[in-house]
Amino acid sequence: MPSGSIKQETDRQYKQKAKDTVSQLSLEEKILQMVHGASEVSRLGIPAYNWWNEALHGVARAGVATVFPQAIGLAATFDPDWIKQVADIISTEGRAKYEAASRRGDRDIYKGLTFWSPNINIFRDPRWGRGHETYGEDPFLTAECGKAFIEGIQGSDERYLKAAACAKHYAVHSGPEGLRHSFNAEVSDKDLWETYLYAFEECVVEAKVEAVMGAYNRTNDEACCAHAYLLEDVLRKQWQFDGHVTSDCWAIKDINEGHGLTRTLHESAALAVKRGCDLNCGNAYLTLMSAFDEGLIEEKDLDQALIRLMTARYRLGLLGESSDSPYNKIPYKVVDCPEHREANLETARRSLVLLKNDGLLPLDRQAIKTLAVIGPNADSRDALLGNYNGTPNDPCTPLGGLAETVMPDTRILYAEGCHLYKTSMTGLSQKGDRLAEALSCVDEADAAVICLGLDATLEGEEGDTGNEFSSGDKPDLNLPGLQQQLLEKVLERCKPVIVVVMAGSALSIGMAEEKANAVIQAWYPGGQGGRAVAQLIFGDYSPSGRLPVTFYRTSEELPDFSDYAMKNRTYRYMTQKPLYPFGYGLSYTSFDYSGLQIKTISSMSKSPADKRNDVLAIVSGQVKNTGKAEGREVVQLYLKADHAPDASDQPHHQLRGVQTVLLKPGETADFSFELKIKHLWQVAADGIRHLVPGQYTVFVGSCQPDARSAELSQTTSLSGSFSL
């Protein structure tokens, strides 16, 4: 039987088994299966199961695991194929931890196989605290990274899911965090379909994600966890979604308490179930008996949700006979094994973005006799991790990485310089109490590495952060506390200075760009991150990371945080000159592009179901390493419609292809991209997508085709055009 037929037949059997199981449950038992902490039903052989688990960049909140760079760092690799391998490792460790825990009767939260990742919201505003959980500001890159992550998590077996991924938060969700329980995200049909739904559609239709999580907010007046248009019309009908929908945690009570759309909690619960939210993270669905008694919901509504939930458990091999599953014998010893650590180090290397280099880097080990390593993030484990993280077994900070990377006789002088965000290190100290120590280190050194930025206590989810910046969002893009002062004083010392920024979002670091010798964006680089930073500084590899977000100069040039219109946001629509542009990143070598060819494909499928992936053009060419070092190049393809009916309402250009190639000096590689119908769609004001005849321009190079990228990288993209 062909593999696709095997999957279809197996799934048909699972759905029938799910129906049979649900038919044997009492009404009370059904309700108890619809919350994240589902109860045991021993008479039917249904064990207790907690649906709530996290795996954003490693198995989270359940002890030791391989902690990869935060999601924004994964996006900076611009390498979906590599992200798929990362996700495969995560699901391998997740399986190992689940099997080990369940065999010992541990079915607690964060121990299951339903991972509420990835976060594919669009990082539209750099002030959003949860932006570092995403793959950045671009819908195409977000979709490609999200699909790869989902495929890696869920595996390729025809009968069983390795683990279940969840695309969140559906939909139009990206702050402000402090208002999320009552906020109404008002968005045009054009922005909805062009920007906010693009990645969700790809993850549902192409990657077949098992779960989708509804957001806290309202979108255009309807609560996302009970949204008739988003859940019923789009997700189930248009996209034919076949998995289950879960609420965000305690989001159901927001329907009445925050949004005022219902009067009581059981009314909210009934509305959400009827609209297609199958699982409740929280306890609101425990009130469904009251809703049933009042005639607000029927048992068939519960059955529909439960069949989806039970089908997911059969797909995972959590119910029924699963001895033939290739996943349930994965041993615990794979967790944080040497092979996974090595993959983690390589991931961190690929995620780091070299933003500036005046020729100082890479440093010569022999020439550095004393190195100053300063800054609040130089030896911070928190700055490695981001949020939704596991526990690395042997984390390496930049200080630790530099200590093992320098020559044995090199002296390292370390000082924090200042607190991450407070004005002194202790309650009794004066303001700036560690500045003199830091400057003393710099004065004695041949070069200085200053590690600044944030951690997940400063940017994160509402309720998770614990400092004076409320709700997890950033008030602006400035370095917090005395970090700017520390940077200024260090730059005045007339010593070579390397600035390492550890943060999950864009910060205003114009002074570093202006006066430092080198600037590295390290994100939250994971358990091996400090080692990767040190190896980059001393040239053990050539950097290849690219920015998945625009670095603005100040927050004053941004639209209002609560404005969800894309006008003047992100590289696709911004009008001002960025500090660092989306897609930008430097290397220790150079690359030359040549031989651009565009071949149009005349034949097109007539089947509506196939049209989105019909290939309209193939773009190919060559890239050569013209430098003296081995390097990985990120080949980027951007597309611009030259015939838009209203050019002011269309993106400047849009990313439509990424490929990575590793080349030795003098080596050449071919690249090839397929441009499909979905890549050429133009979205009208009414949200309808059109394939508009006319001319299109293609740009291929190491960055986007804007003036700032050309200025910073000293490169230009190849360009060509074709007509449709």
Describe this structure in words.
This protein is of the alpha/beta class. A six-stranded mixed β-sheet has the order 9-14-13-12-10-11, with helices on both faces. The protein is globular, with a radius of gyration of 26 Å.
Question: Uncertain segments of ≥5 residues (pLDDT<50)?
Answer: 605-609
| CATH hierarchy class name of the largest domain | Alpha Beta
- Rg, alpha carbons: 26 Å
Largest sheet: 6 strands, mixed
CATH-derived topology of the largest domain: TIM Barrel
Tell how many strands the DSSP assignment holds: 23
User: Which strand order does the major sheet show?
Assistant: 9-14-13-12-10-11
Mean pLDDT reading: 95
Q: Helix proportion of residues, in percent?
A: 25-40%
What is the CATH architecture term of the largest domain? Answer: Alpha-Beta Barrel
The coarse overall form would be: globular
Strand content bin: 15-25%
Number of helices: 22
What class do helices, strands and sheet pairing give? alpha/beta
What is the assigned CATH homologous superfamily of the largest domain? Glycoside hydrolase, family 3, N-terminal domain
How many domains in all? 3
N-to-C span: 40 Å
